[in-house]
Backbone:
């Protein structure tokens, strides 16, 4: 059966607490938003973050500017990455390594990074809002949301933490493995990165099972 096409009219002008509010009204105070970064890169880890906001819809005005991290400037992401832990009740970040991605596959490795992010929360979530992915190993009730990072404030905030954590990691790895431009491309398959793969071959943080690496390594 073909998947039903997502109705983009369901995306609000800015992420809000509509999904969180349903669970707060049920008495669940610890609703965690979960998202990943780096799933499509050719090199480096996949990162994930989980974040729990206080059950208070009045927080929305103070969160103006929080968006899907891909829609934000690097400066805005870094600014919010510093501010969000002071607003949230709990935040956690987790990674899955390139080796784990090659061994498990990108989807299981993404779930592993998300599980590690949840394990790093200081509070136990009572409900999960996840951008698209499901975590079947978790017995906690959960809701995978298409375009969740554009619809749920908690997922949007988690996307910022995951993206900035991974970007920091890739900047550090650029010094360890120079020549690939990781400080700029963050491991994604830009033209310059693919050209470097042809010249230098893969380095230890490349995902060797990915087509873009196999073809040029």
Residues:
């Amino acid at each position: 059966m073909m998947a039903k096409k997502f109705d983009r009219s369901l995306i609000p002008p800015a992420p809000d607490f509509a999904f969180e509010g349903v669970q707060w009204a049920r008495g669940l105070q610890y609703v965690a938003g979960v998202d990943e970064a780096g799933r499509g890169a050719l090199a480096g880890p996949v990162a994930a973050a989980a974040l729990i906001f206080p059950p208070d819809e009045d927080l929305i005005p103070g969160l103006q500017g929080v968006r899907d991290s891909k829609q934000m400037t690097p400066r805005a992401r870094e600014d919010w990455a510093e501010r969000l832990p002071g607003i949230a009740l709990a935040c956690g970040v987790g990674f899955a390594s390139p080796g784990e991605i090659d061994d498990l596959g990108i989807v299981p490795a993404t779930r592993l990074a998300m599980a590690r992010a949840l394990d790093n929360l200081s509070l136990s979530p009572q409900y999960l809002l996840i951008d698209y992915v499901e975590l079947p190993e978790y017995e906690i009730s959960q809701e995978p949301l298409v375009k969740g990072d554009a619809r749920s404030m908690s997922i949007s905030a988690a996307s910022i933490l995951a993206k900035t954590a991974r970007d920091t990691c890739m900047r550090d790895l650029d010094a360890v493995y120079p020549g690939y431009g990781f400080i700029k491309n963050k491991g994604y398959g830009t033209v310059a990165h693919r050209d470097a793969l042809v010249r230098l071959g893969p380095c230890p943080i490349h995902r060797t099972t990915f087509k873009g690496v196999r073809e040029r390594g």
In short: The domain at 13-175 is CATH 3.30.420.10 (Nucleotidyltransferase; domain 5). The chain has one domain: 13-175.
